[in-house]
Write a structure and sequence with these properties.
The complex is a heterodimer of chains A (362) and B (617).
Chain A (H helix, E strand, L loop, with lengths): L4 E2 L9 E4 L4 E4 L5 E2 L22 H9 L7 E3 L6 E3 L4 E5 L6 E3 L12 E2 L9 H9 L9 H4 L1 E2 L3 E30 L2 E25 L6 H6 L9 E2 L9 E3 L5 H25 L4 E29 L2 E8 L5 E3 L5 H28 L3
Parallel strand pairs in A: 9-15, 11-14
Antiparallel strand pairs in A: 1-8, 2-3, 3-4, 5-6, 7-8, 7-14, 9-13, 10-15, 11-12, 11-15, 15-16, 16-17
Chain B lengths: L1 H20 L22 E3 L6 H18 L2 E7 L1 H4 L4 H11 L10 E7 L4 E7 L8 H11 L3 H24 L58 E3 L6 H18 L2 E7 L7 H11 L10 E7 L6 E7 L1 H6 L2 H16 L3 H18 L26 E3 L6 H18 L2 E7 L7 H11 L10 E7 L5 E6 L8 H9 L6 H18 L6 H28 L20 E18 L15 E6 L5 E8 L1
Helix pairs in contact in B: 1-4, 2-6, 5-6, 7-11, 10-11, 12-15
Classes of the chains: A alpha+beta (362), B alpha/beta (617).
Chain lengths: 362, 617
């Protein structure tokens, strides 16, 4: 049986939740508020290290060893019900009594996040934000506003690995310089080839890489940027009232994504530099390495579906900035109608101008 | 005349020398058998006064000694050619030599050495067969070396040295002919040939035996005019007698009208000369050309199987100015079609007509209505001139009458002249220039401003040109003119003329010429295509906004400002490739677009300037 921690109201022992508006724990029953406890009392070992030397293995072992049939059973201290949690889930609400529970055995030791960005956007603001998002989306079905419905909103702390550090190394190119001149009836083109090598070094700050398989990478990437300056030391108090997952993506996949994004930017910079000196270049080799610090950070995201005509469309909202991303339905009838109207309107204006020119003697 | 003047001058010089010497040294013989020579005059003389009597006697003595020993006359003269106004010292030397009776034996063999003090140059002139005895190179060497004696020994030194070089040569090589000498003259029965220290040896072009009319010595040729020389010389025999007679008659009439000499010459060879040189030489050496500049043109047709072609050689500044490259190409284009078909007489006749038209009107092929060059044209109104002029013969009589009738009615109604001209060509003129010329020179236009409009429909290119004059010019805006022209560009010239008149009616009613159906369709199609493109771009943008999740591929937003560091480690040269792409430079000379090689100015063997063009066939 796993260990749990609950946020109890000191006055009435009801469940407390973290209020994004107040930035405090709030008891909805008696109205008591309390500051989130300092994280110092909960601190455990930091997993920060270089990407090359960072040992994700032990974390993965823990994450992966929990098979569904072996899922631990937690007992709600509030109502005594048995609660089963997914392996990656460490904050949840008791389905029987609504008590907010943190599964502490999943956030201790190496599993403990370093940082957390608390929710700043209240879930009540989401319908308005979504309506704003719909503005200008001209291909939506005509009945979308009247017949669509926002499903259950889940406030979720999504696990990210945040990278800080330097990417450096050497890049080799084969470059060309061409010059042409005329000699009689011939154009002589002389092309000189060079073996070019450049050393590059560039620093990156707070690059977040989604560490959860539960949410699509494209959805999480599109929610960027997060303001990491507002990140607080991890404290389970911030989790009250929200769901939270721990990382479940393998370390090599995360480091590969981080390296690829950093390398793409670095190569673009060095390529631009070399191409300013030569007429064309192609990369013949590169040796890049990273010296980075990695921190395990929970980032606030609201997830919900919008239902329309029995179809569900996934949305995500940055819980810190309110940025909305998602996929919207496209109505074919609206597409055809809009295309025909645009074509007709532009053509008619042009042809009218053409006719007017005739009567003006042009 | 020049020869006589030179002769007189030198006679005076010699007479003075003679009187100064106190008498004649000879025995007075004037007719010579072999081994005899005249001794009436001193062999050495000077007109400069820089030769003392003793020096002259000394040189004279050496000359006599030379004559006796080598049986070759020797004459030494020093003269300031510039002061005496002698332009051609060799001519003067010839006159002096012949008129003083110099020369040894029947062939009057001899060498005359003339020292031109003003030029500091020695000229050797050889008579009889003496040029064959001494290589030209040696003569040049002797001339160059002997003048170097002037600084130290004056005129005497130069003359003495020049004589000594000859003596030394004969001393060593004898007086037998040395075989073929470089620079040897054409020679012959006259027994006179020449070498010139300046290297202008007597000409023998291409080492070929030249035709009879070719001068023996080109350097001595003097231009002349021979009005009686035949203007058709058919050496290649490509014309029948009747054709030749007909061409000669045509030439005679054309020359009389144009004031230019026109010559046709055929041959089977150019004797190793370029065609253009041979044509120029034929014209120059046979006394062709009218006036001081010898104005005229010669068509030389070479029927050499290995070099068959023609060259049109123009002479005189006016003729050369008229015969531009564009015109040359046009005329040669016409002639070429005849020549490749072997229709030589017809081709030549056509060429003569074209050249005559060019000389008379300044433009080849132009019709008769175009005024002659230099004529005082006075613009008039000709109400009787037909308003539909079909030079192409495309319209039927009925169509002509119908158009004439309609134009007459419209002209009355609109108050300005309307002219339709159908022409095969613009005759090397710009189309608007041609249309304008036709309107002006045929007396069209109403009133003092010559109000009217003309449409010229060209059959060769199916293009048209519309020009307007006077009061109608305000109505015919650039757009209206453009529409009048474009809608009259049709194969069927009657339809084109009717369309032009229809459009003119519409323009009078509405102030504008209607657009063609094609133009409306084009406008509609263009509007639709642009509308579709705009709608597609709009749809792409709208669709992109419907799906916002996107994978991030870079980390550009997370680069720390100022942290980028790039250092060059190496820039090592590996190799180089050179590629050559053929891209010929367009020759400026070919701007006219024709195929004829064209020379705007060149010289024949006589040195006279010519221009011309030609082709092979």
């Amino acid at each position: 049986m796993g260990n749990i921690k609950e946020q109890k109201c000191p006055s009435c022992s009801s469940a407390m939740r973290f209020d994004p508006d107040k930035g405090m724990l709030v008891c909805d029953y008696c109205g008591t508020t309390s500051e989130v406890e300092s994280g110092s009392t909960e601190k455990t070992a930091k997993p920060e290290t270089d990407i090359e030397g960072f040992d994700f293995a032990s974390l993965n072992e823990i994450a992966m060893q929990e098979k569904p049939e072996e899922l631990p059973i937690y007992v709600c201290v509030s109502c005594g019900s048995e609660v089963i949690a997914n392996p990656e889930q460490f904050a949840l609400t008791c389905p029987y009594c609504g008590n907010n529970i943190v599964l502490t055995d999943k956030v201790s030791g190496n599993m403990r996040p370093n940082k957390v960005i608390p929710f700043k956007i209240n879930s009540k603001e989401l319908p308005k934000a979504v309506r704003e998002y719909y503005k200008g989306k001209r291909l939506l079905p005509r009945n979308f506003f009247s017949e669509s419905r926002i499903g259950k909103i889940t406030g979720l702390y999504v696990p990210f690995w945040v990278f800080n550090g330097r990417l450096s190394g050497d890049v080799s190119f084969e470059c060309e310089k061409s010059s042409s001149y005329r000699k009689g009836d011939y154009i002589i083109t002389e092309t000189k080839y060079y073996d070019v090598s450049r050393e590059i070094s560039v620093d990156f700050d707070d690059l977040p890489i989604d560490a959860s398989n539960k949410v699509g990478d494209d959805l999480m990437d599109s929610l960027e940027p997060f303001n990491m300056d507002e990140a607080a030391d991890f404290n389970t108090g911030y989790l009250a009232g929200f769901a939270a997952d721990r990382f479940d993506v393998e370390s090599d996949i995360i480091s590969e994504r981080a390296m690829r994004r950093m390398a793409t930017s670095a190569m673009s910079l060095v390529m631009g530099e070399v191409e300013s000196e030569y007429s064309s270049c192609s990369v013949t080799g590169k040796k890049l390495s990273a010296e980075v610090d990695v921190s395990y950070t929970l980032l606030p995201v609201y997830l919900f579906d919008v239902e329309h005509n029995k179809n569900k469309y996934s949305f995500a909202v940055n819980g810190q900035t309110g940025k909305v991303v998602g996929r919207l339905p496209i109505d074919k009838g609206v597409v055809i109608s809009r295309f025909a109207k645009r074509t007709g309107l532009v053509s008619a204006i042009l042809f009218a101008g053409f006719t007017l020119m005739y009567f003006m003697g042009w | 005349m020049k020869r006589i003047i030179s002769f007189l001058i030198i006679c005076l010089i010699v007479a003075a020398a003679y009187l100064n010497a106190g008498g004649i040294v000879s025995d007075g013989n004037t007719a010579f058998a072999d081994g005899k020579y005249s001794t009436d005059y001193y062999r050495a003389s000077s007109s400069t006064g820089n030769l003392s009597e003793a020096q002259r006697n000394e040189l004279d003595k050496d000359c006599i000694s030379f004559i006796d020993k080598y049986k070759i006359d020797m004459v030494l003269v020093a003269v300031d050619a510039k002061e005496k106004g002698i332009s051609d010292i060799e001519h003067s030397a010839d006159g002096y030599y012949e008129d003083c009776g110099f020369g040894y034996g029947k062939n009057k063999s001899g060498i005359m050495i003339t020292y031109d003090v003003s030029e500091n140059k020695v000229h050797y002139t050889f008579y009889g067969n003496t040029a064959e005895l001494i290589p030209q190179k040696y003569v040049k060497f002797a001339a160059k070396s002997s003048v170097e004696m002037f600084d130290e020994y004056g005129e005497f030194g130069v003359l003495y040295s020049a004589l000594a070089y000859m003596r030394d040569y004969f001393e060593e090589h004898g007086t037998e002919p040395q075989g073929k000498k470089d620079g040897g003259g054409i020679g012959g029965d006259s027994g006179k040939s020449k070498g010139d220290s300046s290297g202008n040896s007597a000409k023998s072009p291409g080492n070929n035996k030249m035709p009879d009319w070719y001068p023996e010595d080109v350097s001595k040729f003097e231009f002349f005019h021979d009005a009686d020389a035949p203007r058709v010389v058919d050496v290649a025999d490509i014309f029948t007698d009747s054709e030749e007679k007909e061409i000669a008659g045509l030439i005679s009439r054309s020359s009389a009208e144009s004031g230019k000499d026109i010559v046709v010459f055929t041959d089977v060879s150019t004797y190793g000369l370029e065609r253009k040189i041979y044509a120029a030489d034929f014209y120059d050496f046979n006394g062709y050309g009218f006036g001081e500049e010898r104005e005229g043109v010669c068509l030389m047709i070479c029927m050499d199987p290995d070099d068959r072609g023609w060259w049109t050689c123009c002479t005189g500044s006016d003729t050369m100015g008229l015969y531009t490259q564009d015109i040359a190409n046009s005329i040669d284009d016409e002639l070429y079609n005849y020549m490749v078909d072997g229709d030589y007489a017809a081709g030549v006749s056509d060429w003569i007509k074209n050249m005559k038209t060019l000389f008379v009107k300044g433009i080849p092929f132009i019709p008769e209505w175009y005024p002659d060059r230099g004529s005082d044209f006075v613009r008039t109104h000709d109400s009787s001139a037909p308003r539909v002029n079909d030079a192409s013969g495309k319209l039927t009589e009925t169509q002509l009458e119908e158009l004439e009738s309609r134009i007459g009615e419209m002209s009355k109604r609109f108050g300005y002249d309307i002219v339709i001209h159908i022409s095969n060509s613009s005759y090397n003129m710009l189309s608007d220039e041609y249309a304008d010329s036709f309107y002006v020179y045929n007396g069209y236009g109403f009133g003092e401003n010559y109000d009217g409009i003309i449409a010229v429909l060209f059959t060769s290119s199916d293009t048209s040109r519309v020009m307007s004059y006077g009061s109608i010019a305000d109505k015919t805006t650039e757009v209206n003119l453009s529409r009048l022209e474009s809608q009259s560009e049709r194969d069927d010239k009657y339809e084109a003329a009717v369309k032009f008149l229809d459009n003119l009616e519409h323009m009078e009613k509405t102030g504008r010429v209607p657009r063609s159906m094609g133009n409306w369709i084009f406008g509609l199609t263009a509007a639709l295509i642009i509308g579709l493109i705009v709608a597609l771009i709009d749809m792409a943008a709208a669709k992109a906004g419907m799906k916002t999740p996107r994978i991030a591929f870079d980390a550009n937003n997370y680069i720390v400002k100022g942290s980028l560091f790039i250092r060059a480690i190496s820039d090592r040269f590996l190799r180089s490739d050179i590629t050559r792409t053929y891209d010929p430079i367009e020759d400026d000379d070919d701007d006219g677009g024709g195929d004829s090689p064209f020379s705007s100015s060149y010289s024949g063997s006589s040195g006279a300037s010519h221009s011309g063009s030609g082709r092979s066939f």
